[in-house]
Please model this.
Amino acid sequence: MKDEYDACYWGWNEKDKRTEMREKDPWFLVARTPHNQIAAAAHFKFDFDEDIEVLYCYEVQVAEEYRGKGIGKFLMQILELIGTKAEMKKVMITVFKHNPRAVHFFADILKYIDDETSPKFIDPIDEKEYCYEIMSKALKMKVKKPYES
Model:
């Protein structure tokens, strides 16, 4: 991931990344191999985005040898299920525009859309200055029947 950050104007900062991972209420979802090696991981939080309850996925990473095998998709489906069970309205993620594989994964495979808070909508004149998009997927809420509490 360091290379992905270095391709952006803000670059990689190890200290900032460690601080982000220890901020208030972080959650981690980790997939391990039978040999206890990390195959994939997601860092996320339950948060508010403009007064809307969201599950914000800060990062999802899949080890090179496990890419294209469905592990990333499975992790994101688990996050969507967690978000639904926690009654979040949507899942959000920041995607680097210079990573076509990630853009394809979220837009075409998982059906995420550019969120209304993405720089392309907030600052459309200077859109090219931003190396990322914010994408989201609305979560289906369970409709309670009148007799359920």
About this structure: Helices lie at 2-6, 14-22, 71-85, 100-109, 119-122. The mean pLDDT is 84. The first helix runs from residue 2 to 6.
